[in-house]
Amino acid sequence: MTDVSGVRTSRLDSVTSADDTVIGYRTVGHPGTGARQPGVVVLHGAMESSHSHLQLAEALAADFTVYLPDRRGRGMSGPCGADHGMDRELEDLDAVLTATGARDLIGVSSGALITLRAALDNPSVRRAVVFEPPLSVNGSAPTDWLPRYEAEMARGDIAAALVTGMLGARMGPPVFDRVPRPLLKLLTKLTMGSDDLPDGTGEPSMRTLAPTLRCDLRLVSEAAETVGGFAAIRAEVLLLGGDRSPAYLKTALNALERVLPRVERVELPGLGHGATGNRNRGGRPELVAQVLRAFLKP
């Protein structure tokens, strides 16, 4: 099967989580000639979906079977729900791990927060790659923009809410801080896309993903100031980040490096928070795959 992005995808599957929410996922890999390829689950971050790391999965597929879940609220999966939080995310991940038999995790941004908790709580997790979690350390992760985002979403001004989120999380280039908000809003409105395919298998638009930001922010809130607890993780952990990413993400990686007992750290030169994503979103999937392959080698 060929995905709409041009990346070869072996199949689309789904599992049912503990609260009966359907969690869809993509499986990317090549047929092996001997023992079954080791499995690895990639958890995407905010404003992303299973689509966002298809090229990374393809770059790893010669050596691993890669599973790409749509986290709640995205693509093939059910809605976040009123009780969404870390517990639901861990239940969803556990359902995917049980169905696939995978024991290695790659978590990106808010997906890295879930990966850290899974590595702490689930003894079956063997190795975990943690890419730039927005883990607040002494108030380092910015969340003061949330009320404005919520107000803009409530009145249906999705473009404005996306601008607020981008500026608040410091994910745009530095020049964006000098661009008038009305211009940023206009540019966002022109590029945020329309409604998605009814079956959820296509790449979600920014318009569709915008409401899921509040789901990710719940995870950020729950995980805030918990870095010390991760000292109990016994899985091998690779901390990964780009040297062009916002300072608060480096603060989180620095703090984790000090407490994790079995840890490696790699900084990707010239790359930022989008490093793991598809090339059309500024990612460098082949370069990232080289680092991951060395850490996840069987």
UniProtKB/TrEMBL annotation:
<dbReference type="InterPro" id="IPR000073">
    <property type="entry name" value="AB_hydrolase_1"/>
</dbReference>
<feature type="domain" description="AB hydrolase-1">
    <location>
        <begin position="40"/>
        <end position="275"/>
    </location>
</feature>
<dbReference type="GO" id="GO:0016787">
    <property type="term" value="F:hydrolase activity"/>
</dbReference>
<protein>
    <submittedName>
        <fullName>Alpha/beta fold hydrolase</fullName>
    </submittedName>
</protein>
<dbReference type="InterPro" id="IPR050228">
    <property type="entry name" value="Carboxylesterase_BioH"/>
</dbReference>
<dbReference type="Pfam" id="PF12697">
    <property type="entry name" value="Abhydrolase_6"/>
</dbReference>
<keyword id="KW-0378">Hydrolase</keyword>
<dbReference type="InterPro" id="IPR029058">
    <property type="entry name" value="AB_hydrolase_fold"/>
</dbReference>
